[in-house]
Amino acid sequence: MIIKEIEKNFLKFIFDPKEDNKFGYNIFVLIDGNKAMLIDSGYRMHSTEVKKNLESKGIRIESVIISHFHLDHINGLTGLPDVHIIGSADYEKTLDIYVDAEKHHIYTPDIKVEEEYSFKFGEFDIEIKSFPGHANCSLLTVINGKYVHIGDELIFSNDGVPILPLISKSHIKRHITSLEKLKDFTSYVILPSHGKIIRDEELLLKDIENRLKYLKAVDAKSEKISYEEAVRECDQEFLHSEFHEIIYKD
C-alpha cells in the first residue's frame, strides 16, 4: 500500500494489482478532523488496511461513496460496519448479479442518488452525479469544483497505461454516451478507481477518443470482430486485450 497526499486532508491509498492483473486499486479519503469519508472501499483487504492506518491517527471512517456496485468497489464494506453509504438509486440491478439477496443489507445505500446529490464534508464541497456508463449504477463525484472521481469510466494500470474498456456488447452504447459526456470534465483533475491521477487535458482527451474508436468499431458490427480490427483506428495500446472476448459473453 502506498499513500499519497493530493492536498491537505485529501489522500489516495494505492494498492497493487491482483495476480495476473495489470490494474491496481485506489481508495480516496477525505478527512474532517477525526472523521473520514472514503470514495469506494475496494476489497475487504483494502478497506481493512485503510481503516487500520486511519485509526492509528485517531480517525474513524464515517461514510463511503460507492462509485458503482461491482465487487472490487463494494466488498470492502464488509470490513466497515456501521458506515454511512452513499450510492446510486439504481444499485440493486448490479448488486443482484454479485451478492446474494440475504446479504444486500451490507451494501444498501443509506442515501440513494437518483440524479444529483450535494453536501459538504468539512472543507470539501461534494457533488454526486448519476453517470451510467461502465455500469448502470455509476456515479461521478465532483470535489470542490476541481476534482472528479470517475470510477471505472477510464481504467489504467498504476503507472498510467490504458486498460481496455470492460463492458458487455449490449451495454456499449451506454458506455459510449458516458465517455462523450466525460469530455465535459476534461478541465478537472481526474481521479480514476484504477490508475494514476490525470491532470493533462490533452492526454485525457486522446485517451477518451481512443476508447470511443474501439467501442464504436465493436458496436458498428453485429457480428464478432477481432481485437486487431477493433483497435485499427486507435493510436494507443491497451493492456488486457483479452477483455475484448468478454464483450461477446452477454
From TrEMBL:
InterPro entries in alphabetical order: Metallo-B-lactamas, RibonucZ/Hydroxyglut_hydro, Sec-metab_biosynth-thioest
A Pfam family the protein falls into: Lactamase_B
Gene3D superfamilies membership: Ribonuclease Z/Hydroxyacylglutathione hydrolase-like (3.60.15.10)
Highest taxon of the lineage: Bacteria
SMART domains associated with the record: Lactamase_B
Every Metallo-beta-lactamase domain range: 24-194
Name of the protein in question: Glyoxylase, beta-lactamase superfamily II
